[in-house]
Fold this protein.
Amino acid sequence: MALVLDGVRVRQRGETWLHDIHLELSSGMTTLVGPMAAGKTTLMRVVGGLLPPDAGRVVVNGKDVTAISVRKRSVAFVYQQFINYPSLSVYENIASPLRMARFPKKDMDRRVHEVAEIMGIGDLLDRRPAELSGGQQQRTAIARALARPVDVLLLDEPLANLDFKLREQLRGDLKDMFRDSPSVVLYSTADPAEALTFASPTVVLGEGRVLDVGEVADMYAQPPTLAVAATLSDPPLNLLPGVVREGRIECLGSSFPSPGAHASGRNVVLAVRPHQVTIERSGSDVLEFPAEIRLAEVTGSETFLHLMLADGRHLVAQLAGTQLFTPGERTVAYVDPAHIFVFDDAGGRLLATSAAEVDLHG
Amino acid sequence: MTEQSVTVAGSPVGGEIVTAAAPQDGTPDTRASVKPKNNRAWFLVLPVVVSVAFTAVIPLMTVVNFSVQDIFSPDDRIFVGLEWFRSVSRDPEIRAAFVRTLLFSAQVLLLEIPLGVALAVAMPRRGIWVSAALVIVALPLLIPWNVVGTIWQIFARADIGLGGWTINNVLGIDFNYTLDSTDAWITVLIMDVWHWTPLVALLAYAGLRSIPDPYFQAAQIDGASAWATFRHIQLPRLRGVLTIAILLRFMDSFMIYTEPFVVTGGGPGNATSFLSILLSKIAVGQFDLGPAGAFSLLYFLVVQIVSYVFFTVLTRAGR
């Protein structure tokens, strides 16, 4: 099974929602991660045939399906909302795509029970959707999508409306289920933690463009651009301004060796994840930022310390455990330069490799 | 039991914590059951009580009063018990009108509910035509009832009315609502359908609009037909509004007065003499206040009972 998007462009109400998307996906699960309004749902609707693209082609198994109506395509769709037929029982809901596809009755019955067991709703087949909990309703919707073998299975933020315990449970189930699926499974999420948990091939989408494609762990460890780093960081990145000066980068009175080569005087953006900010000195080469404590949010296993730096900027430190602070007190935040991603003012990353090349040549 | 005001206040950040003192005589703690009594609520409810009394209770009681008396003049009246109820419920003219009205309501519901739902399904869900469709559909609802009657009285006339003339001279069907009872009945029925189907359509449209798009997309992906989409997605979501629509249309059509009064005046003969027309004839025309009172109360009771039955059946069906 293979799905190819070739230059897919979508314009709606005078705005471009998808900019010439090129993607090649193979069978098994692919995660589509991006913030709200990145174009995830639009992309899925194009793949599913619910929205005809203004330009480009959708190719499934070498066959151009762009002009084929959704009714004739081999797709299944799971929505963020729990979409089931309200007047039908769980059994009939799961059976409905099979009935439409004219499955023999015996096969249909076996298949319905099979997917219901997989989704853990085998004992709820007689109920109506309204009598189920949110998690059970979504399990029904997923079972409905799984019932009929399809070329492309689309899951659009299926766990976003569930509470976090159900979400984690179902996430684990889905990961096992789709890893070796013969279909192309496209799973979209706005939650970077979800993408990282699935650890499947990942497409990062932002403002209607493909920002990066690859292994999500690599992208998390070495984000190529600021947008990818921001998309894959939750809690959000801390951003600080810096200036390149003679091979070093200066930031609010501290400086460290630049990972890339850039002309002196060039402005850069320093990004550091909150869990890389400490308030205890961890080495000699760390950057120091004197700061005032504004707020400490304790979640139980973690404490989020909101700091105000000398120039009025905010910096968030994610500390382990419950730690108590008094707002208004002064402290010093430390950041190891090894954990700082440096981006140029266009959002591209300054990489050590390019610095090495410059050393060789210069 | 001792009256005591208890304050339990606590705030995590440096707030003062006041704990209730334990009852000193050693009786069990009665904190939960002791509440200061306050009669201010009665004072606030009083305006409602007075206005409801003046607009509903007293007029209704006047009718009850009329229904059990034979009134010759304001000073000359005798108590007759349930005599009027007995004679009214046995009156063949009233019985005929009751059957007629029930038949009319049934036909109104059978026509207006499916037609209104069909109209709502056909109306655009989005785009520039939404407002246009809404205005066009709502138009009949904005016309005063007696004007609706006048419009149809003229429209259906065989000699000068556009509708009546067309039926007679273009379609070649002999149609005259002033002479033929069936024609009169059809005229009044179509007039009601024209006037009130938009209400059902608007209610149903509001219900349909509340269905999220993904439901329709899911049906499309499954390859569901338009009928299956209607049956399994739209209709279940319409149950609530249709219950309201059926109740409103029943009550209103069962009490229809103005439009047939203007168009046919209840005729020809008794063909379109609905209960309300007969009632007004007895009460206002003949000034028989006793029978009219009994008639009104029975009428009122029937509307209540039928509405209750409809409501119960429709809400049960949803479970």
Summary: The CA atoms of residues 96 and 274 of chain B lie 9 Å apart. Residues 42-84 of chain B form one domain. Chain B touches chain A through 16 residues (CB under 8 Å).
